[in-house]
Model the fold of this input.
Amino acid sequence: MRHASRVTKWVAGGKQISLDRPIVVAVLNVTPDSFSDGGAYLTLENAIRRADEAVGEGADAVDVGGESTRPGAARISEADELERVLPVIRDVRRRHPHVPLSIDTTRSVVARAALGAGADIVNDVSGLRLDPALAEVVAQTGAGLVLMHSRGSVEEMASYQHAVYGRDVAGEIVTEITESIDRALGAGIARDAVVIDPGIGFSKRAEHSLAVLRDLERLTSLGFPVMVGASRKRVIGEVTGAVTPTERKDGTLGAHVAALAKGARLFRVHDVRAHRHALDVAWRILG
Done:
């Protein structure tokens, strides 16, 4: 299979995202209870302001999420999720017609509505495990797809309930994410529409997240672009001692630059400007 460094583009709906430099994907959580910025962008006005800021700071794409997957979060209804994300996607699409938009959801109903409102990508933290109809929606619409590794339900995946691995952590993750890839391709999703994500902090203790980042080449060797989202995660706090999520920017930059060197090309981040600068400089050095 092709190494990720030879994958030159990501086809997402009607957009082609060139992978000839690091791609910064801005996190936009329109939830009251996300682990890092819960409630900050819950109103439409604040969400749009943050999207404008992120694009101005150098974001290549914006990922909109309406349901928190933080540890201990309870599920919300489809109706509530739709009410949170659709107005934001419509307005951001109108204001930034050329910026790829992603919907962070595990639900096919939400994905279909969001794609209809202007999203280009579905970011599924369950890797097509939880809603079999989601693959069909992506295939029918030609959307881009992020397959993230996780275990368990939405309520469980950010906990340690399923964080049980043998000696080869990266090998287990490769095996399980390959199952997600097979589900996607088997449903008719185009190969060049798929990005994979090791799921830092999801069903993983710090040592598991560090292990898969250390062996990230084993994911890039699958022949798909790799996205890494270590932004403000617990693993960063455990390594650096930074207690609050907003204090973890520097550690996050370290993790993402290391991931870039190991073949990752997309980065899901909260601190856009800092990542744009750090990743661009690292990219020039790495050549």
